[in-house]
Every structure is written in C-alpha cells, then in structure tokens.
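Class prep. Protein, please:
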Amino acid sequence: MASLLDSHDASSGATSGDAAAPVALICGAGTLPFAVADSLTRRGRPVVMLALRDWADAAAVARYRHHWVAPGQLGRIMRFARDEGCRDLVFIGTLVRPSFTRLRFDWFTLRALPRVLRAFRGGDDHLLSGIARIFEDHGFRLVGAHEVAPDILMPTGVLGRGERDREDITRALALLAAIGPYDVGQAVVVADGHVLAIEGAEGTDGLLDRVADMRASGRIRSPMQRGVLVKAPKPTQDRRFDLPTIGPATIERVARAGLAGLAVVAGETIVAEPNRVAQLADERGMFVVGVPAGAAPGSA
C-alpha cells in the first residue's frame, strides 16, 4: 500500500489570511499539531504554538516557537497571539472536555463568563463554536487545520474492501447522518449489517476498546476480521473544529477490536502520520477507505 496521501494534491484546498503572517496553533495532545506545524513550515508560513499545559507534548512543543497556556485562559491566548502578529488561529489536537470547575480563568474569561457558560451548555461542537465567536469578536479569525494544511486530509481511495464491507459502510454513514444533529459522536462500528457500537463521550479510542472488550467477553459473535469502523463529521458541524481524525493508534485499536478495516469521509478527515497508518494497515491485513463526501448521507 502506498502512502495514503499519494493520490491527494497537496497544493489543493483553501488557505486563509496573509500567506506570510504567522499562524497560532492552540494545541492539545497527540502528534497532529506538529504535523500541521510542519506542513505550514514547508509552505513557508511561520507557526507559533500556544500549547495547552498538561496536554501538549512538552518535548515536541519545544522544537517550535511557543507559549504555554491553560484551558480557560482566553485572554492570555489572545495576548500571545497579538504579540506574535497572529490573526489566524487553529484549534488542533486532543483535549478531553474539562469540567467547568477545573478551568483556570483569567480576567478576560471572567468578564466573558456569561458567554462561556452558554457555550458549555451544549455538545462539543456547540462549545467550540461559542468559544470561536468570542475570539472572532476580538479580531481573530478561526480557521480549520485543513484550510492551512490541506495535505493532512484523507484522499478518496478504495483499498481492499468487499461487497459486505460496502453495505456496512453505507449503513454506518446513514446512521451517523441521522444522529449527527444531536451532537453525539463521529464514529460507529457495524458488522454484517448490525450496529455494534456508537461513539459517545469516550471518543473513538474508547469506542474501539469497548468493542474489543465485548468481543473478548463473547458478546460479539461475528468472526474476527468482520465489521468496520466508520467516521464522519456531523452534518451541521463547523468544519473548522474537531474534524474526524485517524492515526496509527486508530489502526492498532481497530485491529484489536477484530474489525476488517475502517472508512472515513475523504476531504473531511484528518490523517495523522499517513505513512505509518498505511504501513500498519498492511501489517494487520486491514483496509482503509476514503469515501467520497457525496456518498455520505446529509453531506454538503
């Protein structure tokens, strides 16, 4: 299997703002923030990491120009971004939704508390969009990682799936489109036409661990190498935030869950470490499919 991104035109996709101005990456855990930073650097655009304390990888962050902030310090983030000449901001990386009482508010956030509270009274997409509007009202532009680094997106590709898998993928996409308006999860596992699990607050990794546990306990009776994980953005989701993401850890968990492979929406899914993803899929005998966006019910 060649690199998952070999068929993708890395020069395609929208860019945002002044191509010479630095981009601030408000980054959480995982390797994805650094893949985006490296993509921007290759394109000649400066990067400043606004790293979330206790989440972002300190050793990796140290390789870039950076400042440390805590979740809830909106004013501190804005001050660093302005000082660095950044108008474009990107939210990227893993961050488990913190409880309201564990946020570390600065004076700006305290003054904006009614708006922050309203943002918290909803799902993750509602929360991120609400916080984004606060930044936008103060002159910043919130952009998606895929807008400034389009080469991180999954291309359209069909790798080794059979008719049974196509039917499961179609069923899973229809289910995700139906539950999307409720701001639930972005992933579902279907095997032989049966819905085995839907992503909840535990995230995709937790979903796959749950499927592996059910298989180990005998609650899933389908043979190994049957079933598919399908991820898709919610139909009404703000595409600037929290696009579905896969990476090497996803492949490992799909294999442990005994599934045949995974499918995602091409052009609307971020791939972390694509070469490693392709290598692991080959080693585990799994397929990875990028489904055309038009094939997903409810897609734009």
User: Anything to note?
Assistant: The chain has two domains: 23-143, 151-295. Residues 73 and 106 are 5 Å apart (CA to CA). The domain at 23-143 is CATH 3.40.50.20 (Rossmann fold). The chain has a mean pLDDT of 87.
